[in-house]
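# step 3/5: fold
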Amino acid sequence: MREEMTDEALMCAYRNGDAAAFEALFRRHRAPLFRYLLRQSAAGIAEELSQDCWSNVIRARGNYTVTAKFSTWLYRIAHNRLIDHYRAHERSALASYDDADALESALASAPDLAERQPDSQLDRKQLGKRLMHAIAGLPEPQRESFLMHVEGGLSVEEIGTATGVGRETAKSRLRYALAALRKCLREEID
């Protein structure tokens, strides 16, 4: 039953005292939110920020009203938490995208990785490493827009809402990010 409910309906149910509704939301969004944070900070920092985001959801449940998709609201919380963290730490805690542990955990989430042959696994690792490096090289606003779109499944309008910019700005950031990633990966192949 809960699997059929929208995120917004689940959050409203949670607001009204249904703790199981929160568990369903957490199961749906835990991994994508964590990956979004992981790709913009170190693993330990991402875990802390993720916990802070979910704590903010819990604290805000009594005042929750549906004004946007739940995922947009959640990623707005994450965006603000990242900004607060960067301000407090002067961005010194950014992750190294060459970090093998972070790369391994990101690649381990691929559903068919265990079934692949060793050569395919190596190719996938190398491609993943190049992609992570290319993402890390994006300007921050482009990287954030790209990750919200890919990890959070947010639309251009939702990215704009979550980051506090207009639709056209969000669209441009996403378009430039995609173009830069394509170019970088194309250069790697050539």
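# step 4/5: annotate
Confidence is low (pLDDT under 50) at residues 92-118.
# step 5/5: archive (pending)
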